[in-house]
Protein backbone atom coordinates (compact mmCIF):
# COMPACT_ATOMS: atom_id res chain seq x y z
CA UNK A 1 0.00 0.00 0.00
CA UNK A 2 1.41 3.34 -0.97
CA UNK A 3 1.88 6.12 1.57
CA UNK A 4 -0.50 8.38 -0.41
CA UNK A 5 -3.35 6.14 0.67
CA UNK A 6 -2.72 7.26 4.23
CA UNK A 7 -4.78 10.43 3.72
CA UNK A 8 -7.92 8.34 3.03
CA UNK A 9 -7.99 6.66 6.44
CA UNK A 10 -5.66 8.63 8.74
CA UNK A 11 -8.61 10.07 10.73
CA UNK A 12 -9.68 6.64 11.88
CA UNK A 13 -6.38 4.71 12.02
CA UNK A 14 -5.87 5.79 15.63
CA UNK A 15 -8.56 3.45 16.88
CA UNK A 16 -7.70 -0.21 16.89
CA UNK A 17 -10.50 -2.72 16.30
CA UNK A 18 -10.55 -6.47 16.70
CA UNK A 19 -9.24 -8.57 13.80
CA UNK A 20 -11.85 -8.91 11.06
CA UNK A 21 -13.71 -5.75 12.04
CA UNK A 22 -11.96 -3.37 9.65
CA UNK A 23 -15.14 -2.98 7.52
CA UNK A 24 -16.96 -1.55 10.55
CA UNK A 25 -14.36 1.22 10.99
CA UNK A 26 -16.12 3.92 8.95
CA UNK A 27 -19.45 3.14 10.61
CA UNK A 28 -17.86 3.32 14.08
CA UNK A 29 -16.17 6.61 13.20
CA UNK A 30 -19.50 8.11 12.00
CA UNK A 31 -21.15 6.96 15.26
CA UNK A 32 -18.27 8.47 17.29
CA UNK A 33 -18.68 11.83 15.51
CA UNK A 34 -22.46 11.85 16.07
CA UNK A 35 -22.02 11.09 19.79
CA UNK A 36 -19.40 13.85 20.06
CA UNK A 37 -21.75 16.33 18.32
CA UNK A 38 -24.64 15.37 20.62
CA UNK A 39 -22.45 15.77 23.71
CA UNK A 40 -21.41 19.26 22.62
CA UNK A 41 -25.06 20.22 22.08
CA UNK A 42 -25.96 18.97 25.56
CA UNK A 43 -23.11 20.90 27.20
CA UNK A 44 -21.01 17.78 27.89
CA UNK A 45 -17.22 17.66 27.56
CA UNK A 46 -14.79 14.77 27.70
CA UNK A 47 -12.28 14.29 30.51
CA UNK A 48 -9.59 12.31 28.69
CA UNK A 49 -7.33 9.80 30.46
CA UNK A 50 -4.54 8.07 28.51
CA UNK A 51 -2.06 5.38 29.50
CA UNK A 52 1.10 4.50 27.58
CA UNK A 53 3.82 1.97 28.31
CA UNK A 54 6.85 3.84 26.92
CA UNK A 55 9.55 1.22 27.63
CA UNK A 56 12.08 3.86 28.60
CA UNK A 57 11.37 7.58 28.72
CA UNK A 58 14.92 8.95 28.62
CA UNK A 59 15.22 8.99 24.81
CA UNK A 60 11.54 9.63 24.12
CA UNK A 61 10.94 13.08 25.63
CA UNK A 62 10.38 14.68 22.22
CA UNK A 63 8.30 11.77 20.89
CA UNK A 64 6.00 11.87 23.91
CA UNK A 65 5.69 15.65 23.59
CA UNK A 66 4.43 15.24 20.02
CA UNK A 67 2.05 12.48 21.17
CA UNK A 68 0.62 14.70 23.95
CA UNK A 69 0.32 17.62 21.52
CA UNK A 70 -1.64 15.30 19.21
CA UNK A 71 -3.97 13.62 21.74
CA UNK A 72 -4.29 16.42 24.38
CA UNK A 73 -5.03 14.24 27.45
CA UNK A 74 -6.22 15.64 30.78
CA UNK A 75 -4.44 12.82 32.62
CA UNK A 76 -1.46 10.91 31.27
CA UNK A 77 -0.27 7.72 32.94
CA UNK A 78 3.14 6.31 32.01
CA UNK A 79 4.48 2.89 32.89
CA UNK A 80 8.05 1.62 32.53
CA UNK A 81 9.65 5.07 32.49
CA UNK A 82 12.93 3.50 33.75
CA UNK A 83 14.02 6.75 35.44
CA UNK A 84 15.14 7.82 38.91
CA UNK A 85 13.26 10.46 40.94
CA UNK A 86 15.65 13.25 39.93
CA UNK A 87 15.59 12.45 36.20
CA UNK A 88 11.82 12.03 36.13
CA UNK A 89 11.39 15.54 37.58
CA UNK A 90 13.02 16.96 34.43
CA UNK A 91 10.26 15.72 32.14
CA UNK A 92 7.04 17.74 32.00
CA UNK A 93 4.65 17.03 29.11
CA UNK A 94 2.92 19.91 27.33
CA UNK A 95 0.76 21.96 29.77
CA UNK A 96 0.89 19.17 32.36
CA UNK A 97 2.37 18.76 35.83
CA UNK A 98 3.66 15.71 37.67
CA UNK A 99 0.91 14.55 40.05
CA UNK A 100 2.55 11.43 41.51
CA UNK A 101 5.18 8.84 40.71
CA UNK A 102 6.90 5.61 41.70
CA UNK A 103 10.58 5.04 40.89
CA UNK A 104 12.63 1.94 41.58
CA UNK A 105 15.61 2.18 43.91
CA UNK A 106 17.10 -1.33 43.82
CA UNK A 107 16.11 -2.85 40.46
CA UNK A 108 16.64 -1.31 37.03
CA UNK A 109 13.69 -0.36 34.79
CA UNK A 110 10.02 -0.24 35.73
CA UNK A 111 8.34 2.68 37.45
CA UNK A 112 5.10 4.60 36.90
CA UNK A 113 4.22 8.30 36.78
CA UNK A 114 1.07 10.36 36.37
CA UNK A 115 0.67 13.81 34.84
CA UNK A 116 -2.37 16.07 35.14
CA UNK A 117 -3.29 19.06 32.99
CA UNK A 118 -2.25 22.24 34.78
CA UNK A 119 -5.81 23.65 34.69
CA UNK A 120 -7.08 20.95 37.10
CA UNK A 121 -6.66 20.87 40.88
CA UNK A 122 -5.42 17.59 42.27
CA UNK A 123 -4.03 15.92 45.37
CA UNK A 124 -1.59 12.99 45.33
CA UNK A 125 -2.88 9.84 47.05
CA UNK A 126 -0.24 7.91 48.98
CA UNK A 127 -0.26 4.25 47.90
CA UNK A 128 3.47 3.65 48.34
CA UNK A 129 2.93 1.02 51.07
CA UNK A 130 1.15 -1.17 48.51
CA UNK A 131 3.93 -0.88 45.91
CA UNK A 132 6.61 -3.54 45.69
CA UNK A 133 9.44 -3.32 43.17
CA UNK A 134 9.22 -6.03 40.54
CA UNK A 135 5.70 -7.10 41.63
CA UNK A 136 3.28 -4.16 41.68
CA UNK A 137 4.20 -0.51 41.13
CA UNK A 138 1.61 2.19 41.81
CA UNK A 139 0.90 5.90 41.96
CA UNK A 140 -2.46 7.64 42.41
CA UNK A 141 -4.13 11.05 42.55
CA UNK A 142 -7.50 12.60 43.35
CA UNK A 143 -8.44 15.04 40.60
CA UNK A 144 -11.21 17.64 40.77
CA UNK A 145 -13.35 17.65 37.64
CA UNK A 146 -16.38 19.90 36.90
CA UNK A 147 -18.93 19.36 39.72
CA UNK A 148 -17.20 16.19 40.91
CA UNK A 149 -13.90 14.40 41.50
CA UNK A 150 -12.21 11.31 40.11
CA UNK A 151 -9.56 8.98 41.54
CA UNK A 152 -6.97 7.70 39.06
CA UNK A 153 -4.43 4.94 39.73
CA UNK A 154 -1.55 4.17 37.39
CA UNK A 155 -0.33 0.58 37.75
CA UNK A 156 2.48 -1.57 36.37
CA UNK A 157 2.82 -5.30 37.00
CA UNK A 158 6.19 -6.64 35.80
CA UNK A 159 5.96 -9.98 34.00
CA UNK A 160 8.27 -11.85 36.38
CA UNK A 161 6.53 -10.78 39.60
CA UNK A 162 4.71 -13.07 42.03
CA UNK A 163 1.04 -13.05 40.96
CA UNK A 164 -0.35 -13.98 44.39
CA UNK A 165 1.54 -11.12 46.05
CA UNK A 166 0.34 -8.77 43.31
CA UNK A 167 -3.30 -9.75 43.83
CA UNK A 168 -2.99 -9.43 47.63
CA UNK A 169 -1.43 -5.95 47.38
CA UNK A 170 -4.01 -4.91 44.79
CA UNK A 171 -6.93 -5.98 47.01
CA UNK A 172 -5.41 -4.37 50.12
CA UNK A 173 -5.06 -1.07 48.28
CA UNK A 174 -8.68 -1.14 47.06
CA UNK A 175 -10.10 -2.08 50.47
CA UNK A 176 -7.98 0.27 52.59
CA UNK A 177 -7.81 3.35 50.36
CA UNK A 178 -10.45 3.37 47.65
CA UNK A 179 -13.35 1.21 48.88
CA UNK A 180 -15.52 4.30 49.53
CA UNK A 181 -14.59 5.85 46.16
CA UNK A 182 -15.20 2.90 43.81
CA UNK A 183 -17.88 4.77 41.85
CA UNK A 184 -15.28 7.42 40.96
CA UNK A 185 -12.26 5.13 40.50
CA UNK A 186 -10.27 4.61 37.29
CA UNK A 187 -7.26 2.27 37.16
CA UNK A 188 -5.02 2.51 34.10
CA UNK A 189 -1.85 0.61 33.41
CA UNK A 190 0.13 -2.30 32.11
CA UNK A 191 -1.26 -5.30 34.00
CA UNK A 192 0.56 -8.06 32.09
CA UNK A 193 -2.69 -10.04 32.30
CA UNK A 194 -4.04 -10.95 28.88
CA UNK A 195 -7.82 -10.64 29.13
CA UNK A 196 -8.15 -12.27 25.69
CA UNK A 197 -6.67 -15.56 26.95
CA UNK A 198 -8.44 -18.11 29.12
CA UNK A 199 -5.72 -18.68 31.70
CA UNK A 200 -5.72 -19.17 35.47
CA UNK A 201 -4.26 -15.73 36.27
CA UNK A 202 -6.78 -14.07 33.94
CA UNK A 203 -9.73 -15.89 35.56
CA UNK A 204 -8.52 -15.03 39.08
CA UNK A 205 -8.09 -11.37 38.16
CA UNK A 206 -11.53 -11.15 36.50
CA UNK A 207 -13.16 -12.74 39.56
CA UNK A 208 -11.38 -10.22 41.80
CA UNK A 209 -12.73 -7.34 39.74
CA UNK A 210 -16.26 -8.77 39.98
CA UNK A 211 -15.97 -8.83 43.79
CA UNK A 212 -15.46 -5.05 43.80
CA UNK A 213 -18.07 -4.47 41.07
CA UNK A 214 -15.50 -2.97 38.66
CA UNK A 215 -14.76 -4.09 35.11
CA UNK A 216 -12.07 -3.84 32.46
CA UNK A 217 -12.90 -1.93 29.27
CA UNK A 218 -10.27 -2.96 26.70
CA UNK A 219 -11.08 -6.13 24.78
CA UNK A 220 -8.75 -5.63 21.80
CA UNK A 221 -5.04 -6.22 21.44
CA UNK A 222 -2.70 -3.64 22.95
CA UNK A 223 0.49 -5.51 22.03
CA UNK A 224 0.84 -7.31 18.72
CA UNK A 225 3.68 -9.51 17.51
CA UNK A 226 4.08 -11.99 14.70
CA UNK A 227 3.16 -14.86 17.03
CA UNK A 228 0.43 -13.42 19.27
CA UNK A 229 -1.96 -10.59 20.07
CA UNK A 230 -2.57 -9.74 23.72
CA UNK A 231 -4.57 -7.18 25.70
CA UNK A 232 -2.19 -6.61 28.62
CA UNK A 233 -2.71 -2.84 28.92
CA UNK A 234 -6.13 -1.97 30.25
CA UNK A 235 -8.54 0.42 31.94
CA UNK A 236 -10.55 -0.65 34.99
CA UNK A 237 -13.50 1.32 36.35
CA UNK A 238 -17.02 1.11 37.76
CA UNK A 239 -18.19 4.31 36.05
CA UNK A 240 -21.35 3.58 34.07
CA UNK A 241 -20.78 2.74 30.42
CA UNK A 242 -23.02 5.51 29.05
CA UNK A 243 -20.80 8.03 30.86
CA UNK A 244 -17.62 7.02 29.04
CA UNK A 245 -15.97 5.75 25.88
CA UNK A 246 -12.72 3.81 25.58
CA UNK A 247 -10.39 2.95 22.73
CA UNK A 248 -6.90 1.73 21.80
CA UNK A 249 -4.53 4.18 20.10
CA UNK A 250 -1.71 3.15 17.80
CA UNK A 251 0.90 5.52 19.24
CA UNK A 252 4.13 4.25 17.61
CA UNK A 253 5.99 5.01 20.87
CA UNK A 254 6.79 1.41 21.81
CA UNK A 255 5.51 -2.09 21.01
CA UNK A 256 2.54 -1.31 23.28
CA UNK A 257 -0.46 0.66 22.07
CA UNK A 258 -1.88 3.43 24.24
CA UNK A 259 -5.29 3.04 25.88
CA UNK A 260 -7.70 5.96 26.19
CA UNK A 261 -10.73 6.64 28.37
CA UNK A 262 -13.05 9.62 27.85
CA UNK A 263 -15.36 10.35 30.79
CA UNK A 264 -18.35 12.49 29.84
CA UNK A 265 -18.73 15.33 32.35
CA UNK A 266 -20.97 18.38 32.39
CA UNK A 267 -19.24 21.43 31.01
CA UNK A 268 -18.89 24.27 33.49
CA UNK A 269 -19.12 27.74 32.01
CA UNK A 270 -16.35 29.65 33.73
CA UNK A 271 -16.59 33.40 34.13
CA UNK A 272 -13.95 35.55 32.51
CA UNK A 273 -11.15 36.74 34.77
CA UNK A 274 -10.37 40.43 35.01
CA UNK A 275 -7.74 42.57 36.64
CA UNK A 276 -7.52 46.31 37.21
CA UNK A 277 -4.69 48.32 35.68
CA UNK A 278 -4.00 52.05 35.55
CA UNK A 279 -4.29 54.01 32.32
CA UNK A 280 -0.79 54.68 31.05
CA UNK A 281 -1.09 57.00 28.05
CA UNK A 282 1.13 60.06 27.53
CA UNK A 283 -1.86 62.24 28.37
CA UNK A 284 -2.31 60.46 31.73
CA UNK A 285 1.40 60.88 32.61
CA UNK A 286 1.27 64.60 31.70
CA UNK A 287 -1.81 65.08 33.90
CA UNK A 288 -0.09 63.20 36.74
CA UNK A 289 2.98 65.47 36.58
CA UNK A 290 0.82 68.61 36.49
CA UNK A 291 -1.15 67.53 39.55
CA UNK A 292 2.02 66.58 41.48
CA UNK A 293 3.57 69.93 40.62
CA UNK A 294 0.66 71.78 42.27
CA UNK A 295 0.76 69.89 45.60
CA UNK A 296 2.02 71.73 48.68
CA UNK A 297 4.05 68.89 50.18
CA UNK A 298 5.17 70.96 53.19
CA UNK A 299 1.59 71.08 54.48
CA UNK A 300 1.17 67.33 53.87
CA UNK A 301 4.36 66.25 55.68
CA UNK A 302 3.78 67.94 59.04
CA UNK A 303 2.75 64.92 61.13
CA UNK A 304 4.79 62.19 62.78
CA UNK A 305 3.41 59.55 60.41
CA UNK A 306 4.38 61.50 57.32
CA UNK A 307 4.61 58.51 54.98
CA UNK A 308 0.95 57.69 55.53
CA UNK A 309 -0.04 61.23 54.56
CA UNK A 310 2.31 61.17 51.58
CA UNK A 311 1.01 57.83 50.24
CA UNK A 312 -2.64 58.88 50.73
CA UNK A 313 -2.08 62.08 48.77
CA UNK A 314 -0.17 60.23 46.04
CA UNK A 315 -2.87 57.55 45.82
CA UNK A 316 -5.58 60.21 45.43
CA UNK A 317 -3.66 61.93 42.62
CA UNK A 318 -3.05 58.57 40.88
CA UNK A 319 -6.78 57.81 40.91
CA UNK A 320 -7.51 61.21 39.36
CA UNK A 321 -4.76 61.27 36.73
CA UNK A 322 -4.48 57.54 35.97
CA UNK A 323 -7.81 55.89 36.88
CA UNK A 324 -8.11 52.12 37.15
CA UNK A 325 -9.65 50.29 34.21
CA UNK A 326 -10.88 46.70 34.08
CA UNK A 327 -8.95 44.46 31.69
CA UNK A 328 -9.80 40.92 30.73
CA UNK A 329 -7.10 38.37 31.54
CA UNK A 330 -6.47 35.91 28.74
CA UNK A 331 -4.85 32.61 29.63
CA UNK A 332 -2.57 31.28 26.92
CA UNK A 333 -1.68 27.60 26.92
CA UNK A 334 1.98 26.82 26.45
CA UNK A 335 2.76 25.47 22.99
CA UNK A 336 5.71 23.50 21.66
CA UNK A 337 6.61 25.82 18.79
CA UNK A 338 9.26 23.41 17.55
CA UNK A 339 6.53 20.94 16.49
CA UNK A 340 6.49 22.12 12.87
CA UNK A 341 4.46 20.94 9.90
CA UNK A 342 7.33 18.66 8.89
CA UNK A 343 7.19 17.00 12.34
CA UNK A 344 3.42 16.54 12.03
CA UNK A 345 3.76 15.00 8.56
CA UNK A 346 6.56 12.71 9.74
CA UNK A 347 4.45 11.64 12.71
CA UNK A 348 1.54 10.73 10.40
CA UNK A 349 3.83 8.72 8.16
CA UNK A 350 5.31 6.91 11.19
CA UNK A 351 1.83 5.93 12.29
CA UNK A 352 1.06 4.76 8.76
CA UNK A 353 4.15 2.52 8.84
CA UNK A 354 3.08 0.95 12.14
CA UNK A 355 -0.50 0.53 10.97
CA UNK A 356 0.67 -1.16 7.78
CA UNK A 357 3.13 -3.34 9.71
CA UNK A 358 0.42 -4.48 12.16
CA UNK A 359 -1.70 -5.61 9.22
CA UNK A 360 1.21 -7.59 7.74
CA UNK A 361 3.35 -8.71 10.69
CA UNK A 362 5.21 -11.33 8.63
CA UNK A 363 6.57 -8.71 6.20
CA UNK A 364 10.23 -8.40 7.26
CA UNK A 365 11.01 -5.76 4.63
CA UNK A 366 8.27 -3.51 6.02
CA UNK A 367 9.65 -4.00 9.54
CA UNK A 368 13.10 -2.89 8.43
CA UNK A 369 11.64 0.17 6.70
CA UNK A 370 9.67 0.99 9.86
CA UNK A 371 12.79 0.82 12.04
CA UNK A 372 14.73 3.04 9.62
CA UNK A 373 11.94 5.57 9.56
CA UNK A 374 11.71 5.48 13.36
CA UNK A 375 15.38 6.51 13.56
CA UNK A 376 14.82 9.25 10.97
CA UNK A 377 11.79 10.50 12.93
CA UNK A 378 13.73 10.73 16.22
CA UNK A 379 16.60 12.59 14.51
CA UNK A 380 14.08 14.96 12.90
CA UNK A 381 12.51 15.82 16.27
CA UNK A 382 15.89 16.63 17.82
CA UNK A 383 16.92 18.66 14.77
CA UNK A 384 13.67 20.69 14.67
CA UNK A 385 13.86 21.36 18.39
CA UNK A 386 17.48 22.52 18.11
CA UNK A 387 16.65 24.80 15.15
CA UNK A 388 13.79 26.37 17.09
CA UNK A 389 15.92 27.05 20.18
CA UNK A 390 18.72 28.54 18.08
CA UNK A 391 16.24 30.77 16.24
CA UNK A 392 14.65 32.02 19.48
CA UNK A 393 18.07 32.72 21.03
CA UNK A 394 19.40 34.56 17.96
CA UNK A 395 16.33 36.80 17.77
CA UNK A 396 16.45 37.64 21.47
CA UNK A 397 17.69 40.90 22.99
CA UNK A 398 18.60 39.13 26.22
CA UNK A 399 20.11 35.72 25.45
CA UNK A 400 20.63 34.81 29.11
CA UNK A 401 17.01 35.52 30.04
CA UNK A 402 15.70 33.76 26.94
CA UNK A 403 17.86 30.70 27.62
CA UNK A 404 16.53 30.37 31.16
CA UNK A 405 12.99 30.88 29.86
CA UNK A 406 13.46 28.00 27.41
CA UNK A 407 14.94 25.76 30.12
CA UNK A 408 12.12 26.53 32.57
CA UNK A 409 9.51 25.89 29.90
CA UNK A 410 11.07 22.55 29.02
CA UNK A 411 11.10 21.33 32.63
CA UNK A 412 7.65 22.77 33.31
CA UNK A 413 8.63 25.46 35.81
CA UNK A 414 6.30 28.38 36.43
CA UNK A 415 5.74 30.92 39.18
CA UNK A 416 2.14 29.83 39.84
CA UNK A 417 2.95 26.94 42.15
CA UNK A 418 5.58 25.61 44.50
CA UNK A 419 6.41 22.22 45.96
CA UNK A 420 6.70 20.74 49.43
CA UNK A 421 8.26 17.29 49.82
CA UNK A 422 8.10 16.96 45.98
CA UNK A 423 4.31 17.51 46.04
CA UNK A 424 2.77 20.43 44.17
CA UNK A 425 0.96 23.21 46.03
CA UNK A 426 -1.33 25.58 44.16
CA UNK A 427 -3.09 27.20 47.13
CA UNK A 428 -1.80 30.78 47.45
CA UNK A 429 -2.30 30.87 51.25
CA UNK A 430 -0.29 27.67 51.72
CA UNK A 431 2.47 29.04 49.49
CA UNK A 432 2.59 32.23 51.59
CA UNK A 433 2.75 30.16 54.80
CA UNK A 434 5.63 28.09 53.37
CA UNK A 435 7.64 31.23 52.56
CA UNK A 436 6.82 32.76 55.95
CA UNK A 437 7.85 29.63 57.88
CA UNK A 438 11.05 29.33 55.87
CA UNK A 439 12.24 32.90 56.40
CA UNK A 440 11.14 32.86 60.06
CA UNK A 441 13.30 29.83 60.78
CA UNK A 442 16.16 30.11 58.27
CA UNK A 443 18.32 32.20 60.65
CA UNK A 444 18.25 29.75 63.54
CA UNK A 445 18.54 26.83 61.11
CA UNK A 446 21.75 28.17 59.55
CA UNK A 447 23.06 29.16 62.99
CA UNK A 448 22.66 25.59 64.27
CA UNK A 449 24.55 24.21 61.26
CA UNK A 450 27.63 26.40 61.84
CA UNK A 451 30.49 24.30 63.20
CA UNK A 452 32.74 27.23 64.10
CA UNK A 453 31.28 28.78 67.27
CA UNK A 454 33.21 31.94 66.56
CA UNK A 455 30.69 32.90 63.85
CA UNK A 456 27.55 31.84 65.70
CA UNK A 457 24.96 34.45 66.69
CA UNK A 458 24.71 34.47 70.48
CA UNK A 459 21.96 37.02 70.84
CA UNK A 460 24.27 39.52 72.63
CA UNK A 461 23.07 43.13 72.08
CA UNK A 462 25.45 45.55 70.37
CA UNK A 463 26.66 48.29 72.73
CA UNK A 464 27.54 50.73 69.93
CA UNK A 465 25.33 52.24 67.25
CA UNK A 466 25.43 53.06 63.54
CA UNK A 467 25.15 56.38 61.77
CA UNK A 468 23.23 56.82 58.50
CA UNK A 469 23.73 59.86 56.33
CA UNK A 470 20.48 61.64 55.41
CA UNK A 471 19.31 60.99 51.88
CA UNK A 472 18.66 63.74 49.35
CA UNK A 473 16.48 64.50 46.34
CA UNK A 474 19.42 63.88 43.98
CA UNK A 475 20.15 60.46 45.51
CA UNK A 476 16.52 59.40 45.18
CA UNK A 477 16.43 60.39 41.47
CA UNK A 478 19.73 58.62 40.81
CA UNK A 479 18.58 55.36 42.45
CA UNK A 480 15.16 55.29 40.74
CA UNK A 481 16.70 56.12 37.32
CA UNK A 482 19.19 53.25 37.66
CA UNK A 483 16.46 50.63 38.18
CA UNK A 484 15.28 48.46 35.29
CA UNK A 485 11.86 49.21 33.86
CA UNK A 486 9.09 47.03 35.26
CA UNK A 487 5.47 47.32 34.11
CA UNK A 488 3.84 45.48 37.01
CA UNK A 489 2.57 47.74 39.81
CA UNK A 490 2.57 47.34 43.58
CA UNK A 491 -0.44 47.65 45.89
CA UNK A 492 -0.52 51.42 45.22
CA UNK A 493 -0.87 50.88 41.46
CA UNK A 494 2.30 52.81 40.59
CA UNK A 495 4.61 50.85 38.29
CA UNK A 496 8.34 51.49 38.05
CA UNK A 497 8.22 52.81 34.48
CA UNK A 498 5.52 55.33 35.50
CA UNK A 499 7.49 56.27 38.62
CA UNK A 500 10.51 57.18 36.49
CA UNK A 501 8.38 59.62 34.50
CA UNK A 502 7.30 61.56 37.61
CA UNK A 503 10.20 61.02 40.05
CA UNK A 504 11.47 64.61 39.66
CA UNK A 505 8.15 65.87 41.08
CA UNK A 506 8.13 63.63 44.19
CA UNK A 507 11.84 63.02 44.91
CA UNK A 508 11.95 65.90 47.39
CA UNK A 509 8.98 64.77 49.56
CA UNK A 510 10.24 61.16 49.43
CA UNK A 511 13.65 62.20 50.81
CA UNK A 512 11.90 64.22 53.55
CA UNK A 513 9.74 61.23 54.51
CA UNK A 514 12.72 58.84 54.67
CA UNK A 515 14.83 61.20 56.78
CA UNK A 516 12.01 61.97 59.24
CA UNK A 517 11.16 58.31 59.78
CA UNK A 518 14.81 57.44 60.33
CA UNK A 519 15.15 60.21 62.90
CA UNK A 520 11.99 59.09 64.73
CA UNK A 521 12.93 55.35 64.48
CA UNK A 522 9.62 54.53 62.84
CA UNK A 523 8.96 52.13 59.97
CA UNK A 524 5.79 52.94 57.99
CA UNK A 525 3.04 50.29 58.16
CA UNK A 526 2.30 50.85 54.45
CA UNK A 527 5.78 49.55 53.54
CA UNK A 528 5.18 46.29 55.40
CA UNK A 529 2.83 45.17 52.64
CA UNK A 530 4.68 42.74 50.35
Entry summary:
With 530 residues, this protein is α+β, with helices and mostly antiparallel strands. Helix content is 41%, strand content 19%. The chain contains 15 helices and 18 strands.
- Helix fraction by DSSP (H/I, runs of at least 4): 40-55%
**CATH fold-level assignment of the largest domain:** Deoxyribonuclease I, Chain A
Gyration radius (Cα, Å) is 31 Å
Structural class: alpha+beta
Overall CATH architecture of the largest domain? 4-Layer Sandwich
Number of strands: 18
* Overall number of domains: 4
From the spread of the alpha carbons, the general shape counts as elongated
pLDDT averaged residue by residue = 82
- For the record, the CATH class of the largest domain is Alpha Beta
Distance between the termini: 66 Å
Low-confidence stretches: 1-33
Q: Please report which band the strand proportion falls in: under 5%, 5-15%, 15-25%, 25-35%, 35-45% or over 45%.
A: 15-25%
Q: In CATH, what is the homologous superfamily of the largest domain?
A: Endonuclease/exonuclease/phosphatase
Number of helices: 15
Largest β-sheet summary: 6 strands, mixed
Strand order across the largest sheet: 3-4-2-1-14-13
What does it look like?
This protein folds into 4 domains: 35-269, 4-Layer Sandwich (Deoxyribonuclease I, Chain A); 273-331 and 464-528, no CATH class; 338-396; 418-445, no CATH class. It has 530 residues and is an alpha+beta fold. The radius of gyration is 31 Å and the shape is elongated. It contains 15 helices and 18 strands. Helix 3 (61-71) links the parallel strand 1 (44-53) and strand 2 (75-79). 41% of the residues lie in helices and 19% in strands. The protein has a 6-stranded mixed beta sheet with strand order 3-4-2-1-14-13. A 6-stranded mixed beta sheet has the order 5-6-7-8-12-9, covered by helices on one side. The chain has a two-stranded antiparallel ribbon with strand order 10-11. Mean pLDDT is 82; it is low at 1-33.
Amino acid sequence: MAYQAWSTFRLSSNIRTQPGQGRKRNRDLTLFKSVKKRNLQQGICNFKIIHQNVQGLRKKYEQLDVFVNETMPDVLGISEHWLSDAKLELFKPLNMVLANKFCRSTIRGGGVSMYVKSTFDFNPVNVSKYSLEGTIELCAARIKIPNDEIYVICLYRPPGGNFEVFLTKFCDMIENVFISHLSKLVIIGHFNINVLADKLHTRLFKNTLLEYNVRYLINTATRETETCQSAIDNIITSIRLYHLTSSVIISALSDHHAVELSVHVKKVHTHSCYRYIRMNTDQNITQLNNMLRNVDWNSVLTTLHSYGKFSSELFYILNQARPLIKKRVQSHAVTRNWISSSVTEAREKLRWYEYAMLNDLSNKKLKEEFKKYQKYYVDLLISEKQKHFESVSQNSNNISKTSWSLVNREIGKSGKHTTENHLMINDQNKIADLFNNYFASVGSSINNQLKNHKYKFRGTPVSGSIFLMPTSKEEIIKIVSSLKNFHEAGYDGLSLDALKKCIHKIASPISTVINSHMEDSLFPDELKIA
